[in-house]
Amino acid sequence: MNRVVHPIEQESFRRLRARLDTSYLPPLTRAVVERVIHSAADLEYATDLVTDEGDLVTAHAALHAGAPVVVDVEMVAAGITRRETVCRLRDASSGPGLTRSAHAVRLAYEQVGPGALWVIGCAPTALEELLTLDASPALVIGLPVGFVGAAESKAALRESGLPAVSNVSEKGGSAVAAAALNALLYHPVSPEETS
Length: 195
Known about the structure:
Blueprint (H helix, E strand, L loop, with lengths): L6 H13 L7 H14 L4 H4 E2 L2 H12 L4 E3 L2 H6 L20 H13 L4 E4 L3 H7 L8 E4 L7 H11 L3 E4 L6 H13 L4 H4 L1
Parallel strand pairs: 2-3, 3-4, 4-5
Antiparallel strand pairs: 1-5
């Protein structure tokens, strides 16, 4: 099923491309970078985001093959269109040395197991907890926001070697994390991926 793109969105992307040349980027990287920039109206994401086209190709195939999508908060889930997500924050509790967000990640992993796509846009502690698990993710979109732990958790994600989308700065948030996942959802499936 083809997605119908509203004229306002078309014009927004036209203006984005008039201000920033993304044509040199590989297809999925370009899709992620443009959709993240579009979600935040922040051109700095062009140099702040860290992606790998090979990771995105693998994640795109997994996503379209039905791999589960896990989010850290309902705000991320609300931004992801055309796909059900798993969010266990309502079932989680905090305790000594464990935030509610970290506990939610543990609960979600118990539910979905390895191979999921993880979309973390709010809580650095959720990303930190994910890195302690043997989650074997298809992709981690690690874009938590904040002045405490956000940049550090994203650096740890990059150092982990896991397939990931992250950024270097403290910027991030639910909207940009959801946008990165939506870029993969909206990007067409190639004939090789369906065979």
